[in-house]
Amino acid sequence: MRFRLTPRETSFYDMFAASADNIVTGSKLLMELLGADASARAEIAERMRAAEHAGDDATHAVFHQLNSSFITPFDREDIYNLASSLDDIMDFMEEAVDLVVLYKVEELPKGVDQQIEVLARAAELTAEAMPNLRTMSNLTEYWIEVNRLENQADQIHRKLLAHLFNGKYDAIEVLKLKQIVDILEEAADAFEHVANTVETIAVKES
What we know:
Blueprint: H1 11-34, H2 38-68, H3 76-102, H4 112-129, H5 140-164, H6 171-205
């Protein structure tokens, strides 16, 4: 029977899983926003803000654990990068919802629903992948699929920009809508950053 002389701190795995589950909550609120009228959006934004605060708490818990742990399950830099990228996703999703409310957007342009569907799928995959960090198993398909989704998000984003600049919208409305779709694109990029960090960890641990 083998004994580990330097036991590794395992609570990081639970923290990453909790952060990813919270991101799924955020993606569901984005989906809810699509079908909501203007009067319901403020309440959705409040719930998204609460989810973003919960994400911040989870991130701070990881950093606190990182600073107080002598032994970590993998490189400290990778733990920091993974926690930060997960936090970025929630920040971008919360910002997008908040801007829809603050800008009093009456109707989101066609294509935003596709952006949000990609984010929702990436959120599900990320939540499924985080528990597998314990064993470093069944992760390859995860980062391949998230990278594919990010490429899909890029294409949707470009089509949205072309739509916004086709002359249908006035200049002020273009500025508002462009900022929202750009932030959703940044959320897709952040999902890819998480997947790339997981790939880096898996390669180092193999």
